[in-house]
Design brief:
globular
Length: 158
């Protein structure tokens, strides 16, 4: 099995609203983490182009941008998948983030799976010298914090 991070939580909003907050409003809830910066900067604004094949980017105040990945699955209100790279990754190194949105009663369960970390060597700068287990734990904690921010954004009235 691939090295992965798996995080899930429930949000008191319809899944279409949560999907919208995750994709079109990512710049409102995403909190950068210097430990997991895409391009060694933390002052960028994230955006996801809302279509299959759309770009997942971080744009900086000077107008430059970094393409983090591409949308590999796009089913509004249900499912989203993105490739995920850091600037320090080699051409053959990529991870994938899959996000599922499921109705559970009056809430939406959001499940984030960030997989493919076994394609990134232990000694890679992106892992900061951490053993794989510790790296995945820290990365999972960051995703938990991000999902808390998503929850707060999605539960606000649009």
């Amino acid at each position: 099995m691939s090295s992965r991070v798996l995080v899930a939580l429930r949000i008191a909003a319809p899944r279409e609203r949560v999907f919208e907050a995750f994709t079109r409003e990512i710049h409102l809830w995403w909190r950068p983490n210097p430990l997991f910066a895409f391009a060694h900067r933390t002052d960028g604004r994230l955006a996801i182009e809302p279509e299959l094949g759309g770009r997942f980017t971080e744009t900086y105040p000077d107008g430059s941008s970094f393409e983090i990945g591409r949308v590999t699955a796009w089913e509004p209100g249900a499912w989203l998948a993105l490739t995920w790279r850091q600037a320090s990754f080699a051409d053959d190194q990529v991870t994938e983030v899959e996000v599922r949105f499921e109705t559970v009663g009056a809430e939406t369960r959001v499940t984030v799976e960030h997989r493919g970390w076994d394609s990134i060597p232990s000694a890679h700068v992106a892992k900061h010298g951490m053993p794989n287990t510790l790296f995945l734990q820290r990365h999972g904690q960051w995703w938990q914090a991000l999902m808390g921010e998503l929850k707060a954004e999605a539960e606000r009235a649009p």
